[in-house]
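Researcher: Hi, I'm a grad student and pretty new to this. My advisor asked me to get structures for two proteins we've been looking at. I'm not sure of the right format, so I'll just paste the first sequence and hope you can take it from there.
Model: That works fine. Here's the first sequence with its structure tokens right after it:
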Amino acid sequence: MMCGRQNQRRAGLALAAAALLLAGCGQSADTKGADGADGAKDGAKGGAAAGASASAKASVAPLGPGEVRVGGEVAKPYSVTLADLRKLPQASVEVRFTSAKGEQRHTYQGVPLHDVLKTAEPRFDAAKKNGQLRGFVSATGGGDYRAVFAWAEIDPGFAKSQVLLAVSEDGVAFDDAAGPRLVVPQDTKGGRYVSELNQLWVGVVDPVVDGAK
């Protein structure tokens, strides 16, 4: 009789242990399933982000040799080459300036910078008096060299001299692969004579000035 009760008790304990083991396995499987689903979601998000980043990079086409990208706060961004500039009305200017090589005297021929930028239709605020005077132009050349101009410096409505995108120096044409050179007749130093020009970026000072208040 005693042996029968002990056997029944052992059988009950064995059933209880088996039930606990099965419950644990089910919970582990559920947890793994949830982790796997979360991992899949994270992977999908990561893939979407990577795809968006790749798409954004692909939207900016690489520049060809000697090509200049005109962009920024403009309605019609575009690119221009030396060959394109040679087809436009030309201006000639004699300049004198100092550089690391000493005093320089040259005659340049090219297209007024204002004409090139006007084609891109800068977006200045017409509601503000002389809204264009809030504008500026960043010029980037070879070796990430960069110089900045106030819009009034290149606008013939305000400036006496014309900044040029030169296509030749002293009658010698620039190499197409090198691109044009900025010529700034009013400057006494050659720091803003940006060579191997590859980007012209139009901006306005309002976001910087208003953000600093």
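Researcher: Oh nice, that was easy. Here's the second one.
Model: And its structure:
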Amino acid sequence: MTTATTSRRDTASRRDTASRRDTASRRDTASRRDTASRWDAPVTVLAASAAFGLLLGWATYALHGTTPLLERATNSVSTWILWTAAAGALIRGRSLAAWCGALMMLATCGGYYAASTLGGDFGAGGLGTAAVWSVAGLAGGPLLGWAGWTVRRGRGDVRAVAGAAIAMVVLGEGLWMGLALRYWTEAAVFLTVGVLLTAFLTFRLARSREPRFWWCAVLAPVFAVAFYCAEKLILDSLIGTF
């Protein structure tokens, strides 16, 4: 009888221990979910995007006058806008990724021109240029934010199109530096990086067994030419009027 009682007590004790463990595990899981939820909250994500954009704009101004390659690497359309693709890949919601892309580009413009104002390099004549760059950021930021989200979380052939859009900005910037500005060394660097980025994204899509992964490699140079034409014929023309 004593043995049976002891056995029942041991069984009850094991059940109680298992129950406590399950309860603790559920609480820990719920706690992690709550923490992740707070970090994923739209207000938090938007605030982080804006803060990073301000920092990026300030850093761009601060690096003026350093080495030519470093200055070009930071003070360029592609370098600014690629960060929106990186942010989009980290954000869970597609719409939020696009909104963060727009906000980040506005904040980057704001940070850059605020820093230049404090440095005494910005006058009333630069307002038009600032407006043009802000509008360009509002156009490109959401696109690249969406592209970053789509490459990581999207489904179907649109992933390859999104990958080509990301590579487009680096390749297009390289074309603009070479053909328009005649900065051949910087152009070669950007084009090389663009080719490597295209290859990486295409390989990533192939590994995920995307049927038309090769669209990324085909469309990237096509989009790059369109990007160059837009920058040369539209953006430069608008900036030249101020």
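Researcher: Is there anything I should tell my advisor about the second?
Model: You could mention this: The chain has nine helices and no strands.
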